[in-house]
Write a structure and sequence with these properties.
The chain is α/β, with parallel strands linked by helices and 214 residues long. The chain has helices at 15-28, 49-57, 78-84, 91-103, 126-133, 147-160, 178-191, 207-213, and strands spanning 3-8, 33-36, 39-40, 70-71, 107-115, 137-142, 165-171, 196-199.
Length: 214
């Protein structure tokens, strides 16, 4: 399986934005992309908004379970939302679906739900799922106030779990101050020696991730 597992420092930090941008850019370079969010909560329809964005970014070829295995109505951690609906989350099904999609593609992009420690079942969280998948990590963070602490703690947790962080990506929204975002990025890069990038609206900024995955 070649690609990335996209996690975040929190919910609503830009994971889907970055994952979709990466999928579109990879497609523009002739790669067949499988973009997948295995679990999504806060779904009022059969296909959640995040997974819909990922499927469209990947070219719209994905069908059935390749469009997402678990969709839950409540906007909460998967374990909490599944318990409310009295549903069991089948981890083997998540894994086999990811492997099926990966076999049909050149690049696999898996987006987690929320952050690194979000619980999926009583015993398994996003971190454990990412370890099972075995892809290098993209850690996505917001650009504004508070992101330095959240970012460094997440990177520390990922590496303590013996997972490889391929890049730290700070996603800046149009209404956020760019100079402030760059200052935050500099502070993270000063403390962590890996690849740190600010992502705005230029998909070419992700080219190095596509080339290094090949």
């Amino acid at each position: 399986m070649i690609g990335y597992f996209v996690t975040g420092t929190d919910t609503n930090v830009g994971k889907t934005y970055v994952a979709s941008m990466l999928a579109r850019r990879a497609r523009s370079k002739g790669l067949r992309v499988f973009a997948f969010k295995p679990l999504e909560t806060g779904c009022q329809e059969s296909l959640g908004a995040d997974q819909r964005a990922l499927v469209e970014a990947a070219g719209g070829w994905q069908t059935d379970l390749l469009c997402g295995v678990v969709q839950l109505r409540r906007a909460a951690a998967p374990r909490v939302a599944a318990r409310e609906e009295k549903r069991a989350i089948d981890l083997l099904q998540l894994r086999s679906t990811m492997e099926d999609g990966a076999r049909q593609s050149d690049l696999t992009i898996v987006e987690g739900a929320g952050g690194w420690r979000v619980p999926i079942t009583d015993d398994v969280d996003i971190a454990a799922l990412a370890r099972q998948v075995g892809l290098p990590l993209l850690v996505v963070a917001r650009a504004g106030l508070g992101t330095i602490n959240h970012s460094l703690l997440t990177i520390e947790a990922v590496e303590r779990d013996r997972c490889h962080v391929a890049a730290f990506v700070m996603s800046r929204r149009p209404d956020e101050d760019r100079d402030f975002a760059l200052e935050n990025l500099e502070e993270v890069s000063r403390r962590w020696g890996g690849r740190c990038r600010l992502i705005e609206d230029d998909e070419a900024a992700l080219d190095e991730l596509i080339s290094s995955s090949e």
